[in-house]
Fold:
Amino acid sequence: MKQGDVEAMAQWRPMADPLYQPFDMPQHSVAENVRWFNWRNNDPSRRLYTIENERHEVIGSLTLREIDGRRSARLGITLGADYVSQGYGTEALQVFLDYYFEKLGFEQIVLDVAGTNLRAQRCYRALGFRQIGQHYRRADHKSYYQIAHEPRYQHLQAVFRSAGDDLEVLFYDMALTHDEWQAR
Structure:
């Protein structure tokens, strides 16, 4: 990832569906974006990658964090609103996972995914990720309150719980090993 990629991501329009608004690129000033990029790019426990489409437009990002030698790292992926549900995420992950396991030589990759993000869960399972645990996090994005209380999201009520005055959302911990990736 280059600084200019962050500037391109800052131009993405926000997600329309509250289900995906927690994953929008935060809207910051150019100076804040530069600070964010420099902070993340200079952190040895992280690696930042850009996803481009066939026209070389910046459509998403992949991040590795919590890098543990060659044993494992935690994956994050984000796509701009105009590029979701077109297969770009699955394609980017297929290419990246080959690179991650074969070129970089990692043994395992882990991630966590919000219980509300059914689309991402399907993608990860189709790529061979398996659930290894779960945990709750404070639902700190305003759209979680909308999802938790609107009748149209009734099917997602089970992934929310009250924690005193706070609302928490369930996240699934998932993993994929080099051997599992090779066997698929």
Notes: The mean pLDDT is 92. The longest strand covers residues 166-177. Residues 88-103 form the longest helix (16 residues). The domain at 3-183 is CATH 3.40.630.30 (Aminopeptidase).
